[in-house]
Design a protein that fits this description.
Length: 321
């Protein structure tokens, strides 16, 4: 059997998040996918069937009553313990705020290297694990490899489609000892989750508003269009800095990186820092009243027009289709 590749499972409310399927698909390109579940006792058994369907042959259960009461330290401890048991070819985590911090801490513990925000993985001819990164707003592709220890790779959500071969997942317990003295405890979560909309970083449709939206009240136009697609709402930094929408929704270099199937930009000019966070979206639609706006350079479909005129018509057309 080929060398295991560990994947940190993202889960909520008893269900595996879509990014985990994407990571297991990438893991299968490198070796034998193995999932690491951190949670309360019983979580791994609950998720094992779904993880098997997504391609995990082994599920490492890192479970304790305290596992969900701390921030990221249980995940670091769990991956360290699983790595000691499995001796993996690589460890993959989602490139979220938490995932990136977990990668860094884990690399210190395992004395190995991190590659951040990868969009693909492969094996070089000599068998070394190679991660592909899209940098400088997608203008360049970098192939990076770790030269010391087990490569720890954080992967951008929506980089690949999940299509791993189903496996029969065997659950195996690993230790998850968390030193409370070295851990931050979750007291409350801020900001509160936003209704029924999907999480920005993993949504398959994102509708973003820029400064052109003009006010916080006007953002209902952006929300309405997002809702007809069942998508997430994003915002440019100018919109966020102007107080139109909360910072947690900022897309771009200093916000969230998104790579949805469909990205719709309303009143966004397409500055390089914004593009850096959405350029790998599969289909990009831009609505802007300035025909020379840079966003049209990367849009698959561009509409020169007033967003307050065009966006409600698009929403209506989708609703009645
Ligand atoms: P503008 O550039 O002002 O564009 C507004 C657009 O709306 C214009 O193209 C205009 O034609 C159009 N418009 C106006 N009214 C309408 C209408 N009624 N209908 C249709 N179109 C209309 N930016 C980010 O987004 N994300 C980041 O993460 C980010 N990080 C940054 C990091 C650094 C270090 C720096 C220096 C900048 C960063 N920025 C970031 C800011 C970035 O440079 C731009 O200033 C910002 O993206 C511009 O936002 P915008 O497109 O909404 O606004």
């Amino acid at each position: 059997m080929s060398q295991p590749v560990l994947v940190l499972v993202e889960h909520a409310d008893g269900a595996v998040r879509p990014v985990t399927g994407e990571l297991l698909t990438l893991a299968a390109q490198l070796g034998s996918p193995a999932a690491v579940v951190v949670g309360n006792p019983g979580t791994a058994e609950l998720l094992a069937g779904e993880l098997g369907r997504l391609g995990a042959g082994t599920v490492y259960a890192a479970e304790s009553d305290e596992a969900t009461g701390y921030l990221i330290t249980p995940a670091v401890a769990a991956l360290q313990a699983a790595a000691q048991v499995a001796e993996p070819a690589a460890i993959l985590v989602a490139s979220t705020v938490d995932g990136r911090e977990i990668s860094g801490r884990l690399a210190v513990r395992l004395n190995s290297g991190v590659i951040s925000d990868a969009v693909g993985v492969s094996r070089a001819e000599d068998g070394t694990v190679v991660a592909e990164q899209s940098v400088f707003g997608g203008d360049y592709t970098v192939h990076a490899r770790v030269t010391l220890g087990t490569p720890i790779i954080s992967v951008r959500t929506n980089s690949v489609e999940a299509h791993a071969e189903a496996a029969q997942a065997a659950v195996q317990a690993v230790d998850v000892t968390v030193d409370p003295a070295a851990s931050a405890t979750v007291v409350a979560e801020h900001p509160e989750p936003v209704g029924d909309r999907p999480e920005l970083g993993s949504a398959s449709v994102v509708v973003s508003g820029g400064r052109g939206v003009g006010s916080a009240e006007n953002f209902t136009v952006v929300e309405d269009l997002a809702d007809v697609f069942g998508g997430a709402v994003g915002a440019s930094r100018a919109a966020v800095d102007s107080g139109y929408y909360p910072h947690q929704f900022q897309v771009g270099q200093t916000g969230t990186s998104v790579s949805p199937q469909l990205y719709i930009a309303l009143g966004v000019s397409g500055a390089i820092q914004h593009r850096a966070g959405m350029q790998t979206s599969k289909t990009i639609v831009a609505i802007n009243k300035d025909a020379d706006a840079p966003i049209f350079e990367l849009a698959d479909i561009g509409v020169v027009g007033d967003l307050f005129d065009v966006a409600p018509k698009v929403a209506e057309a989708v609703r009645s289709s």
